[in-house]
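User: Here's a chain of 547 residues. Predict its fold as tokens.
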Amino acid sequence: MSETPKTLLFVGAAVLAVLLAYFASPKAIQPELFSDEGEPFFTSFTSPDQAESLEVTEFNVESGTPKAFSVRLKDGRWVIPSHLDYPADAKDRMAKAAGLLIGLSKGSVRSDRAADHAALGVLDPDTIETAGQLDGVGTKVTFKDKSGGVLASLILGKKDGEGDERFVRVPGKNRVYRVKLAGEVNAEFKDWIETDLLKMDAYMLSRLVLDNYSVESDGYRARLLPGERIELAKEAGTWKLPGLSETEETNTTKISEVTRELDEIKIVDVYGKPEGLNERLEAAEGRSLEALMTHLVQRGYYYDPRNNRIVSNQGDLIAVNDKGVKYTLRFGDEIFGTSDVIRAGSGEENKTDEGKESGQAKKANRFLMVSVELDESVFTKPTEAALPADIREKRKKARDDINALIAAVTTFKSRAEGKLPESLAALTEGENPPLKEVMKDPWGKDYTLEAKEGDSFVIRSEGEPTAGPVASDDFAKEDKIATLARDWEAYEKKLADGKSAVEALSKRFGPWYYIIDAESFKKLRVARADLVQPKTLGPPPGDNEDR
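Assistant: Prediction complete.
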């Protein structure tokens, strides 16, 4: 074989070896485990306005079951379905919660194995079956649109370190990511409502009544046994307790504690009130009293048939403010447990302190019903009737006309050396007269000019029989008529505003039992002895004189 063929043969073999080595060598590929890092979780969820419901699911350790808390938009307002559509203060909070997931990108992958979910805290609370898994249960957050379609759903797990990074996963997927979440979404009822129960300003209170009656009951119907009834009124900004002896005075500090507690009383939870009670807490006609009474007695309330109203085994507290709103607070039985256990209308009431939890007794709360009505005695009602508006307008026009005529008569006198015109018609005579024409009064009659002693005079309209003449020497009468009209307008406005406030509050309070902290009740449940203190006596006469 010549050299040339040999050379070509060697070259061909070398090329073949290179090709074989290329195709046989491992390739540098991107592992599938990390292929989606940096991608957004929810590409179609771009605005908080898309979300019309939010569900937050956690695991309730006390009940051993998942706890689903939801907020949704219903008929144009945010409500909490788990609490019988109680109104939610959710607009801003929804936007903030949605902002946690909108635009959220997948961070670094921590695991792709289901076996790691408990350690990372991303177990789905809806699928927990054993108590041993509780430490690894996450919080599932789900946003849905108007049609119920899922916009975003994510299980929030444990934090990774001290910062804002935490582990998350999409429900139904094994992959766990590390992401930065600056914020929380929780299932606490109180965090989604206006917790200020009464929306009351303590400084506006004008009257307090603490009616500490008791109840004698056959289990359903009640008979009231009068007890200590304490009535307090604010006079010139200071609370006064009637019936004090010469050595006693009102303990205004204690009263301030009561009014401050009324101002600050907070909602812990709510229950739906049974059908058959109206907003004034009266039994509605045609309703079965037996079922209603059973429901009430279980919560510390009774029916008073004589007065057709609900009474409490803990008495009433009545508070009246300057706007005429009369609040009546009726305190029911204690109930033990946190708001996680207290569910609206669920029948899960725990009325005994059963055992300890981690060495701590369950927290005591208490039932409360609130009703409101208008106390018109707060407003000062004018003692005289006001003239009709059309008559007042005519009298005002007559007064304006008389003032114009007075000015014209004064001009005439200045030109006539102090003499009065013989009649008002004379004001229109001569060159450049003080008046072009004499007007008729609003009743179509003539004004009259009457001379008085000296150079004084009176211009008068006979007016109408209802209130008599309008005269220049009795404008004080017109001032009184105008003042009386303004007093009536002010009174009627206060009355209307009070009725409007009562109507709005009645709609708010009407459907609910409220659950409040038992400590609030203790601060509000005071006796007369708590409100009295020994009078502070000044120094005896002559004590400060020089000796």
